[in-house]
Fold:
Amino acid sequence: MVDRLLIGRKIAELERYLEQISEYKDISVKKYRKDWKIQRIIERTLHLMIELCIDIANHIISDRNLRMPTSYADTFRVLVEEGIIRTSLFKRLEKMAKFRNIIVHQYEQVEPEIVVSILKKNLKDFEEYKKAVLKVISE
Structure:
């Protein structure tokens, strides 16, 4: 059985990060570009949020003996294959996993426009994911 307490703690942490990063949701590209401290706060917080989502998914996958994912993005594909999340959410989370790789491994310079777009349009994806996870662990 999935460890509801563990996932509950991770959900609470995700909620805390969502609340913190929401302070920056109205930031302009210009302001983001100018302030390296804000860049670091936002990028690191997004990184932590994405990691939490991946970690939660891996707990569900392990608990249900689902197929092992081959990448961080594939972790979310397993959830959509099992009907845990919707395909539309998967596509957005898949992009987040790829964004995480850019941040962590510095494959390329993080584009300020992309980060600001995530803040303005995609924070709700974390809420949607949280709701899907809470539904699964309550079954």
In short: The two ends are 11 Å apart (CA to CA). The chain has a mean pLDDT of 94. Helices lie at 4-21, 29-34, 36-63, 72-81, 87-105, 112-121, 123-138. The chain has seven helices and no strands.
